[in-house]
Amino acid sequence: MTGLSYLELLRLTAPEIIVALAGFLLLVLDLTFLRQAALAIRFRTAMVAACIACVLALVLLESGSAQGTLPAGMLVVNSLTQLVQMALLALAIFVLLWVDGARFTTHVGEYCALILFATTAMMLLVSTQNLLVIFITIEFLSLSLYILTGFDKDSPQSAEAALKYFLFGGMSAGILLFGMSLLYGISGSIALQPIAVAVNASPGDPLLTLAMVMVLVGFGFKIAAAPFHMWAPEVYQGAPTGSAALVASSSKVASFFALFLVFYLGLMGAAGSAAWGHYSAGWVPLIAILAALSMLWGNLAAIAQTSVRRVLAYSAIGHAGYMLIALVAHSRESLTALVYYVFTYALATVGAFGVLAALEGEKVDSIADFAGLGKRAPGLSFCLLIFLLSLAGIPPLAGFAGKFYVFVAALEIPNHFGLLWLVLLALVMSVVSFYYYLQILKQAYVSEPKPAAAAISVPVTTRIALWTTAALVVILGCLPDMLLNRISAAVTSAFQ
To answer: The whole model's pTM is what?
Structure first.
C-alpha cells in the first residue's frame, strides 16, 4: 500500500496512538485532579485508566481491520504483527496490575505513563521493517526502561541498576547504530528487503560480516544473551518489581521478534550453517555460539544465586539461549515456535514477578525468605509453583510446549539432525535449571515458616490476576494449538 492518506495512517497506528495518548492523559490526571488524593487511590486510578487504554487497543487489534504497509517498510501491519502487539498489551496489563499495590514513589502518573510509553515503543518495534525506525523505537524503549529501573529514589540498588543499564545500553546502542550504518552503506537502503538483495549479491563481503557482528551485539544486549548480559542481574534485583517485570517479559517479546525479522528478512543470504559436519560461515554459527554460551552461563550461574530475582535473571539468560536456537534454525516453523515460546515464557515470568509484587510487604528477596510460603499463603505459593515449573519446562505446562516446538523446529532442518548437538545441550541445561527452581519450591513447601511468621494477606485484585495468569500457563500447555495454530496462520500470511 503506497500513497496513504493521513486517515489511513491514523487507522494503521490507532492502537499505538491510544496507548500513547493514555500515557499523556495519565500525567494530566495525576498532576491535577488527583494531586491531593491518597497514594493508594492515585495508584488504583492510574492502573485502571492505563488498563482500560490497553484493553481498547486490544479490541482494536483483535478486529484486524486496519492492515497495510508504508513505503520502505517503515510500518508493516499484518496479522502477525497485530498478534505480537496483542501479546505486548496483555503483558502490559499484568504489569500494571502488579503496580496497583506499589507504594515506592509519589510520582504515580509519571511511572504508569512510562509503562505505556515503553509499550508503545515495543508495539512500533514489532511492526516495522526499516532500520531507522527499528533503532528509534529501540532507543525510545530503552530510555523508558532506564527511567523505570531507577524510579525508586530511596533504593541505592535501583539507582545502581539504572546506571549500569544506561551505560551498557548506551554502548550497545552505538554498536548497533554503527552496524546498521554499514548495512546502509552496503545496500544503499535502510529497508530490509533492499538490504536482502544486496546481501544476496555479495554474501562474503568483509564489511557485511562486520555489520552482522555489530548488529548481533546490539541486539544481544537487548535480549540479555551471554556475554552481553552484565546488566540483567542488577536490573532484575534492583529495579521496582513492576519495572523488572516489564523488562523481563514484554521487552523480551519485542526484542526477539525484531531480531528474527532483521536476520530472517534482511540477512538471510549470509546465514551460513551451524549444522554438525556441515559448517559454513555466516551469522548462524555466531548465533549458535551465543545460544550455547547463554544456556551454559545462565543455568550454571543461577545455581550459585541466593536472591530469587537474580535466579530469575540468570534463568532469563538461559532462556535467551533456548530462544536463539529458533533463530539458528531460521525457518518459518522456527519463527512460529519462537513466537509461541517467547509468549509463554513472558507469561510465566510476569506471573513470577507478580508473586514477588504480592510479597513486597514481606521484604522477600533471598530464597530462604520463601520458607513456609505454602502454609502462609497457599494460593500464592501454588501460582509460584506453576510459574517456576513452566519456566523449567515441565509438562503439561506452557513452558514445556514452547521448548518442545523450538527443539523440533531445529531438528527438522536439513543435514540429518545437524543441530542435534545444540538441542542436546539445551536438554541438559533444562535438567540443570530444574535444580535451582526446585530450591525455591523446596523452601516454599518443605521448610517450616519462622515462628513469628503470620499468614500473608493478598489483595483480591492481585489474587485474581495471579490465578488468571497461572490458568493461562496451564491452558496453553494443555491446549497449545489454541495459540500455535493462530501464530502459524499469521506467519504463513505474513511471509506468503
So the answer is: 0.94
